[in-house]
Amino acid sequence: MLNEIFNDCEAKMKSSIEHMQKDFKTLRTGKVTTSVLDNVKIDYYGTPTSLDQVGSVIAQDATTIVVNPWEKHLLADVESAIAAANVGANPNNDGDQIKLFFPAMTVEQRQESAKQMKGMGENAKISVRNDRKHSNDQVKKLEKDKEITADESKSAQDNIQKITDKFSAEIDNILKTKEAEILKV
Asked: Binning pLDDT at 50, 70 and 90, where does residue 11 land?
């Protein structure tokens, strides 16, 4: 019973970290990646569709992304969706493909990205703390229902705290590494 609570708690905390790392992909670092376009959707026959589902999205070099729609009539839709998404570069339509030329990041932009990253990390920590609270509540309910003793409850809550500390430290390490990557010129 307690092991199920521990495993569930750990799985939820792991998914919080995975979600944080997925959010990091939308941040711009020194080198541009195609993931800055992950949240851009176009109306494809009435369905909001991501760009990589309607064409190829390639990082040509450290500052250029090329979007090549498979259906040429989508060029205008893709161009307007990218412009509306405000990804940090204006789309250039040459009739065949769309090129995005990202300027080199300034120190202020790097600091702003680092600030956004810290916010994402704080959200992950809040999620981990919520998972801890949920698990502790389950343990307290078992104690209240006389399914476990007070000592077992205390021990289980200590174990949940150790799991929480482990994931909080992991988040801090990831944040430190990512911040260094963003601020590196």
From this structure: very high
- Residue ranges of the domains in the chain? 2-26+106-183, 34-101
Topology at the third CATH level for domain 34-101 = Gyrase A; domain 2 (3.30.1360)
* pLDDT tens, residue by residue, 62-85: 889 999 999 988 898 999 998 888
How large is the C-alpha radius of gyration of the chain?
Answer: 22
Instruction: Considering the domain delimited by 2-26+106-183, tell me its CATH architecture.
Output: Orthogonal Bundle (1.10)
- The tokens of 69 are what? 């729609």
